[in-house]
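Students often ask what a holo structure prediction actually looks like on paper. The answer is less mysterious than it sounds. You provide the chain, you provide the ligand, and the output is a string of discrete structure tokens encoding the 3D arrangement of the protein together with NAP.
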Amino acid sequence: MNKVFITGASSGIGKSLALAYAKRKCTLGLSARRIEMLNEVSNACKELGATPFVYQLDVQDRNKCEMIAKQFIEDADGIDCVIANAGIGGNDNIYSGSSKDINNVLKTNILGVTNTLMPFIPYMKEQKSGSLVCISSVASYVPLPFHGGYTSSKIAIRMIFDSWRPTLQRHNIKTISICPGFVDTPIVKGPARKLPMKSPDKAAERFVKIISKGKNTYVYPWHYKILIFIAKVIPEWLYNYVIKKIFHKPIN
Ligand SMILES: NC(=O)c1ccc[n+]([C@@H]2O[C@H](COP(=O)([O-])OP(=O)(O)OC[C@H]3O[C@@H](n4cnc5c(N)ncnc54)[C@H](OP(=O)(O)O)[C@@H]3O)[C@@H](O)[C@H]2O)c1
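The corresponding structure tokens follow.
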């Protein structure tokens, strides 16, 4: 994995992924909206021996995503792996009378992922290799109250990959869905910060290994599989009863 393009590389998991690939001396495409933070990540990557290219990018901007994909392929002289990591959290504001907040989550977390990945697919098809990675979430298995936008966005991208996988396998293109539980980054806010969280650097090291193995879907850390199992088998009425009793307002 030599030429890696990452969205949301200014902070959190994306930044840690950039540093993890930098340790492996990769050529990196680092993108996000906050250019100063990206430049800092880029300098740290250079110090680790990588060759980083920085692109200011809002993943909601389809045309710019297409332009920058082309630019990175030119700058890096190819592409091995694209990581659609950029994402936002936030509750639906269910009583606000406006779809503004939930739609912003859906646009960033779903359309932002397709905007990021699709421009690279023709190149990967032609070269008959490549890895596409999306950062989904454990939340894609558990309907979190007040976070319908976030949970459904994470299901959507996992499902897009499940749909694409057999088709793209014909061209030796891998589709890897990573589903983290809580990782200690700025996206986790409020009382949720009291829950146990993994460090983003440790998580990123694990993800780099999983990506190189080309695993289809990966839940991290493993114990969230128990929660996912419970969410699958619990009767709907019981889930609704418990949630109604416990959650009266958003926790994040
Ligand atoms: N941390 C967790 O517990 C956790 C758990 C499961 C899944 N995830 C997923 O992991 C991914 C990374 O999140 P994180 O935890 O590292 O949070 P974070 O530190 O807040 O990072 C989010 C990144 O996404 C970028 N971003 C947001 N909106 C963007 C946009 N419109 N265009 C381009 N970049 C945008 C941000 O950069 P700019 O603001 O500079 O643009 C930032 O670099 C997200 O998809 C998140 O849903 C996180």
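Residues 88 and 105 are 6 Å apart (CA to CA).
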